[in-house]
Amino acid sequence: MYFAVHASCFNSLRLGVTSNAFRLGVIGLPTTTGSTGKIFSTVSVVLKRQLQASRLLFTMVDSQYFLPNDIGISALDCTEAFRLLSPREKLYAHYLSRSAWYGGLAVLLQTSPESASIFVLLQRLFRKQPAAQLESMATAAGLSPEEYQAFLVYAAGLYANMGNYKSFGDTKFIPNLPKEKLKALVWQSQAFQDSPSEMEALWDSCSTLLFSLEDQQKQLGLGDKGVTTYFSGNCCLEDAELAQKFLDSKNLSAYNTRLFKNKSEEGKASYEVRLASAVQKDCAVDGEGESRCGRYDFEDCVFMVSRGDYAYLMKKVSENLEKAKNHAANENQKRMLEEYAQSFTFGSIEAHKEGSRFWIKDKGPIVESYIGFIESYRDPFGSRGEFEGFVAVVNKAMSERFAKLVSSAEVLLPELPWPKDFEKDRFLLPDFTSLDVLTFAGSGIPAGINIPNYDDIRQSEGFKNVSLGNVLAVAYATQKDKLTFLDEEDKDMYIKWKGPSFEVQVGLHELLGHGSGKLFVQDEKGNFNFEQDNVRNPETGEQITTWYKGNETWDSKFSTISCSYEECRAECVGLYLCLNKHVLSIFGHEDEDAKEVVYINWLNMVRAGLLGLEFFTPESKSWRQAHMQARFVILRVLLEAGEGLVNLKESTGKDGRPDALITLDRSKVHTVGKAAIERFLCKLQVIKSTADVEGGRALYEGYSAVSDTGSHNFLRLRETVLLRKEARKMFVQANTRVKGESVELVEYEGSAAGLIRSFTERFADDAEEVEAHLLELNKRDAPCWC
C-alpha cells in the first residue's frame, strides 16, 4: 500500500507541478560524502513536496466521485407558459407528464443494480421528514452542517440523474460523508423508527454499492470496463454483437430491450432478449396482431424473446397516455397516443414508430411532447434506448427564428461540403420550435433534440427539432471567476456571447446536422436508393462498394461509435454553417455582433474539447460521454490544421496549481478553420453514407486517442481539467396537480431541498405502491448482475 502511494508521488509529475521536486529527489541529492543529517534533511524536503503533490492528486481524483456542496441547482421556470394554456391543454399536459414521470423510473433499473433501492431509501426518508425536519436528526446522529448538506446534494443528484451515475459522463458519484454517519442518520430518522426492519433491509441491500469505488464500479461500461444493466453481468462485447446480428435477422429493434445470458441449453449458449411491456405473457394476446416472442435457434445459440420488462411502470405509462388522449387537440395527437400506448403495452417498436409518424404530422402543437426508449448514449453497445419523456409549451417568439431557419434549409444544405448524391433526395421541412420545459423525465435534460431516431422515418418521412429555451436560459449561464482555460481578454466576451452563439449552434446542430445526409441502402428486394453505377466516393474517386443492407441501421452498424460520431458530424455542421452571414441574420446578428457570435462559437467548441478530457477513462482507454468525445475530436482536427489557428499551452495558475490556456486566432477562422472542418466533415459524411465501418472506426478512434505523446500531453492535461472542473448544474422541475376541474402548477425552490421535495411529492398518491413495485422489479433481476 505504501509503495503505491509513494509511486503515485512520482507519477504525479504528470500533473506538471512536481517536476522541481522530482529533480531535487533524483539529481538534487548530494552524490559526495557529506553530512548524513544534510542528506536526511534534503530527503525530508523531497518527500514532503512529493506527499503534497500526491495529496493534490488524490483530492483531484476523489472529487470526480463527489458532487460538491456548492453545485449549481436551478428551478426551470415555466410559470407563464403554463398559465397561458387552456384548461384542456393543461389536462393534456398533466397526464402526459404523469406518463413521463412513471416511465422515467425505469431509468433507475437501466442504470445500476443499486439505483432503485437507493431511490426507495431516499423516498422513505424524505416522505416522512422533509429536509428541514431531517436536519435535527442529522445533528443528533453526529453529522456536521457540511456533511448534512453533502447528503442533501447526493440525494438531489440521484433524483436529477435517475441513478447514482452521472447522466453526463457516466461516472459514479457517492455521498461525500462517512458511511457510518449516513447509517446513523438513517437509524435516527422517523422512517426507521416507524419501520426498523424494512429500513434496515433497504440499507443492507444497497449501502455497500452506494459507497463502493472499486475500479469496475467507477463508470458505466460492458464487461470489465464498467457497470451496466442493459446486459447481464456475464455478457461481453461478443455477446452484444451476436445479439445484434440476431435482432437484425428478425427485424427486431434493440431500442426497448435488454439482454440476459442464461445457462447453456443442450450445450448451446442461451440468451433472453427482454422487451419492455406492460403485458407479461409471451403469447399473442387480445388487441395485438402477431407476437414476436418465442424461442429461436441462431448461429448454434438459443434466443428467447420475452416481454414484461418494467411491466408495472409500462402499465402506468399506458394508462396515463389513455387519459391524455381524452384531452388531445386533434386526430393526429389521438392516433399518436394510441400507438404509443400500444407500444408500451405490448413491447412493440413498430407501434412506437407508427406513433412517431403521427407525431411528425402534428405540426405546431401548443403542448409538445415525446416519450419512449429514445437515446442510446448509455448502452455500452450503442443500440438500446434509455427511457425519457418530455412535455413542453411552445415559446412563440423564439420559434419564429427557428421557423426562418427551417425555411432556409433547402438553400443552406447545398452549402455543406459533400456532393449532392450524398444528401437526401428530398428535405422534408420539419417543425422546429423553442419550448419551455414543463416536464423532462429521464437521466438528464438536453439543450436541443432532433427526433425520432428511426433512420427509415428520418430519411423518407421527416423529423422534428426542438430547442429547450428555459433550459438554455439557466444551464449555460457562467460566472467569470469560474471560467477556466481562457485568456482574460476573452472572458467578458465569452460571458456576453456564449448564450446567443450556443443558440445558433443548437439550431444548426439539430436541424441541419442531424437532419442532413443520406444513407445508401439496398433493401431486402435488392433495390438501391442511389445510382450504384454512377455515384463516386469524393475522397477516392472510386465507385461505392459498401452500403447498408436489409435491416441494418446506423446504430446497429456502427454500434459503439455511432452516437459520438453522429454528434461530431452535427457539431461540425454547426461550426461550418455559422460562418454563413444569412444564418447569423436569421438569429438577429449583423456586422460586428455577427463576428463575435462566430468567434465565441468556435472558441466555445475548442474549450469544450479540452474540457471533454474529464470524460475519458485512461485505464480502459474509453470515453464516457458522446458529445464531449465529439468536441475533443474537433479540437484535435483544429489543432492539426496548424498555422496558429488554435494554441493550447500548459501553465501554472495564480494559485500555484497546474493550469492551461487555449486561444483561437479569429483572423484564421474563415480560412484555416473553415478548410479544416470542410475536409473533415466531408470524410465523416462519406463514411456514414457508405456504411464504411472499418474506415469510420480508424478515423474516429484515431482522433479520439488520448496519450502523453505528440505535441500535446493530453493525459497530463486531463489531470489539469479534473483539478479545475466545475460540476454540471441540476434542475428542479415543477409538478402538476388536478384540483377539481382544473390543473395547478406546483413549483419548488432552486436548491437541493427543493429538488428532493419535488420528487417526494411527485408520487405522493401512490408512493408505497410505486416503491414496492420498484423493489420487486429490482429483486427479480438481482441474480443477473453477479
UniProtKB/TrEMBL annotation:
Catalysed reaction, written as an equation: Release of an N-terminal dipeptide from a peptide comprising four or more residues, with broad specificity. Also acts on dipeptidyl 2-naphthylamides
Location(s) in or outside the cell: Cytoplasm
Main location: cytoplasm
Active-site residues (renumbered): 510
Pfam families: Peptidase_M49
Keyword rRNA processing: no
GO CC annotations on file: cytoplasm
Endpoints of the signal sequence: none
Any coiled-coil regions, as ranges: none
Cofactor note text: Binds 1 zinc ion per subunit.
UniProt KW keywords: Acetylation, Aminopeptidase, Cytoplasm, Hydrolase, Metal-binding, Metalloprotease, Protease, Zinc
Family of this protein: Belongs to the peptidase M49 family.
Name of the molecule in the record: Dipeptidyl peptidase 3
Gene designation: DPP3
